[in-house]
Structures are given as structure tokens and as C-alpha cells.
Amino acid sequence: MKTILSLAVLLLAAVSCGRRAAQPQAPARSERHYVFLPPIPPATLSPEQSRDYLREHYWDRFDFADTMFVHKADTAQMLNSYIQFIAVISDRPADPAPMADLMRRAAVSRPMTDYFVWLAEKVLADPNSSWRNDEFYIPVLEAQLAAPFYDQYERMGPEYALGVARQNRIGQQANDFRYTLESGVSRRLYDLKADYVLLFINNPGCPMCRDIREAIVSSPFLNRFIDEGRLKVLAFYPDEDLGEWLAYRPHIPASWINSYDKGCVVRETSAYDLSAIPALYLFDRSKRVLLKDATDVALVESTIYDREQAAGL
């Protein structure tokens, strides 16, 4: 399980060119602040059973009918409690059921729905959040749109966000797109033939992009797959300043495919969510999505390793 992050860590200023952090002001503490205390699993349960217990019962002590909680809650404590819930259910990152159940319970009133939508925006949708997860955020947006509390104008934002979140979902086929090389030759993602394709959406000069590039370059595991031709790395620049991209080309390994988005088509069509850069997408041979919008190279390694082990390779 990931280490539980404090509010201060979650909302640090962004260290990448696209991952911006919101910084809400926590209200001053007072004796009247409400504090939510999650249940404690029975001591007789194993760690896995404890996790399953919390997956099902985490919000049992929360009074969803008490709308005063929205105004008097200890914001920092509640954000950390919400993050702990996400940590509990993150062992199944493509299972939206716990989040859908939470939003069903929160739908008793607009204040409560708004409050849990706000928590989700900060933890699951903020580009700077390390807990960002579209599979968990989709049920939040669906619940918001299903609620009777919002007019047609208030629904426009969630509808757009839901459309973006539903792109390139884990386990589904990736959106195809055209990329262009320095030579001017254009090809498509689906033209790449390899057991795995690692799409690295990046910007020159972005510190976090540099860190990810160096982590891939220094990975013996990934470089073995690259050398064997089983993994292709597609470095993709999604913006329009080609001078900056050309100046940065010596930093991209020769074994990678260094490309850009001619005409910014990917951005214009929202084929991929570019609100958070850098981003890693891992695809299998058929271009089914294995990882979406990741920044952890170790997660790329473990995902490939687990698939290789399952296949007996």
C-alpha cells in the first residue's frame, strides 16, 4: 500500500510543466470542527481481510445526512481520510465499485454531493496528485451528472471531464494517433510492432520529464526489452514550438522514437488528456492500455514483469 500522504505533500506546488496543484486554505482549527474517524478492522483479521473490511465499511461511521459537516469539517483531516480510502481501494485500480458506492451514499443532498465531488477533484483529478486515477474519478462524474441538483450549465464541466476520462481506459484499446518524425515522415501508433509500446508524452525543459527520461535510460530491465525489440519507447511532444523540440533532440536516446504532434491534432481532438505532462502510457502488442497517465517508471517495470511472469516468460 502506498504511504499515506499528508495534505501538505498532496498539494505541493507542481514540479512538472503540466501538473499544477490547487492550494485550498484549510480553515482555522476550533473545538467545533467535525472530525471523521474511519472504523478499525477487527484484530482477528489478516492484513488482506482488514483491507477488504475497510473497502466495504470505511464510510459506515460517516453521517451523510449531516450537512453541517460540510461547513465544519477539519479540511486537512478529511482530505487525509479520503486519501486513506483511496489507498485502501488502490490495490484494484480498475475497480470503480467502492467509489460508485460512496457517491451513491453521498447523493442524499447537493451539499454532500458537492463536498465529495470536491474531495475527488483534489485527490483523483488534480494533475499534481500522485493518487490521480480516472477509473475512480469516472463514478464521481457519473454520480454528479445523475444527481437532480444541477442545471444544464452546471453539467457542462462534468460532461466534458467525463468524456476525457473515458478515453484510453485501462484494459481498452488505445486511441490511435499520428506522430511525426524530424524527417517529416508521419506514422501511426498502431504501426508500431512490439510486445510493448511505452508512450512518453513530454515537454523539453520539464524537470519531471527529465527525471522520467533518466529513470528509463537507467533501467536495466526496460533496456533489455528495448535492445531485444520487445519494447518501443515513443517520445511524443504535443505542443507547437518545434524550435524547442529540435533543440532538445540530443537528450532523447537514439533507440527511442522521437516525435511531435504535427498540427497539435491530439490536443485539438482530446484523444489523450494533456492536462498533466509528463505522462506515461503502456500498451501491449494489440495497443490495449496497461497503464494510463503514469509517472512512475518502477510501475512500468512491475507491470511488464507481472505480465511476463503470468505468461511464463
Would you mind describing this structure in some detail?
With 313 residues, this protein is of the alpha/beta class. It has 13 helices and seven strands. Helices cover 41% and strands 11% of the residues. It has a five-stranded mixed sheet with strand order 5-4-3-6-7, covered by helices on one side. It has a two-stranded antiparallel sheet with strand order 1-2. Helix 11 links the parallel strand 4 and strand 5. Helix 5 runs parallel beside helix 7. The longest helix is centred in the middle third of the chain and has 16 residues. The chain is globular and about 60 Å long.
Compact summary:
The chain is 41% helix and 11% strand. With 313 residues, it is of the alpha/beta class. α7 (134-146) packs antiparallel against α8.
Keywords:
alpha/beta, single chain, 13 helices, 313 residues, five-stranded mixed β-sheet, two-stranded antiparallel sheet, 41% helix, 11% strand, disordered N terminus
Rg for CA atoms: 21 Å
Counted beta strands: 7
So what's the overall shape?
Answer: globular
**H/E element sequence:** HHHHHHHHEEEHHEHEHEEH
Widest sheet: strand ordering: 5-4-3-6-7
Largest sheet, described in full? 5 strands, mixed
Overall helicity: 40-55%
Q: Treating each run of at least 4 consecutive H or I residues as one helix, how many helices?
A: 13
Overall mean confidence score, pLDDT: 89
Q: Please state the structural category.
A: alpha/beta
The end-to-end span amounts to: 27 Å
Our estimate of the beta-strand percent is 5-15%
Uncertain parts: 1-17, 19-31
